[in-house]
Amino acid sequence: FGRGFGPSVAVGTAILALFVWATARHVRFGWSTISPAALAWMVMGAYSVSQALLGAVGRLTMGIEHAIRPDYISHALFLPVAALVLLWLPPRGLSVRQPVVRTARTVAWGALVGLSLSLAAANWGRAPATILRESRARLQHGKACAQLVRLTPSGDCLDLLFPSFYPRFVLRLEKLDRLGVIRPGLVTEIRPAEVGQGEGSVQEATLVGDTLALRGWATIDEDQTDAIVLASREADAAPPRVIAVFETGRRGKGLARQQGRRLRHAGWR
Description:
This protein is α+β, with helices and mostly antiparallel strands. The chain has two domains: 5-125, no CATH class; 130-268, no CATH class. The chain has helices at 5-27, 36-58, 64-67, 78-88, 98-124, 127-150, 156-161, 166-179, 192-196; strands spanning 200-208, 211-221, 227-232, 241-247, 256-258, 261-268. It has a four-stranded antiparallel beta sheet with strand order 1-2-6-5, with no helix packed on it. A hairpin with a 2-residue loop joins strand 5 (256-258) and strand 6. The longest helix is centred in the middle third of the chain and has 27 residues, at 98-124. The chain crosses the membrane at residues 40-60, 72-89, 109-129. Keywords: Membrane, Transmembrane, Transmembrane helix.
């Protein structure tokens, strides 16, 4: 609920207090008067509380924020359901007029449906956006690595950026190449000096403490610029040494069409 822990803690405390009060309504007349249905929902609510506590304690070693993350509420979904059902079930030994019972049940069912849907949305509502964001990030990394391969004598960048998934990632690149989505440009011979001409430059270099801040530009005809590779050679015969890979993240302001060809211009820093 909300963007911080405050609203979530307040709502969770209110639900827990509601469950305790609803349980007390059934227990105050004695354990022998508790109906089997009410007892089952008491056990379900207690199970939810115990699972939430055990899960939070088990994750405390990774930090308090990780222990109470909002996406760990799947077990707690049973708690509001149990609390509202216990409110809906009239305790044995309590004399209540029938219209009052019907009104209480209607309110309880409405609150049950609304609260359950809101809790489910809070837990799983972000899933589609998260999946889409992760998929885009993986695609951008793949395209950045494909551009890096063009500037190095071999495909070692794949092993460097994706050490655990190297065979599978190469297979995916080959399949994408057949579909015409991207062309990684795996080459056996390359002249870095010729490739680098006219494709970019360093415009500003500033030393801030122990960090060298660089800013520049790059253009690649017919391809969107997803990453900029900074490399150097100590000798003419030596292969280029990759210093860093900068992700542009988005197209620059210089997007234009020149002579009928698409030219993407991306600033980087």
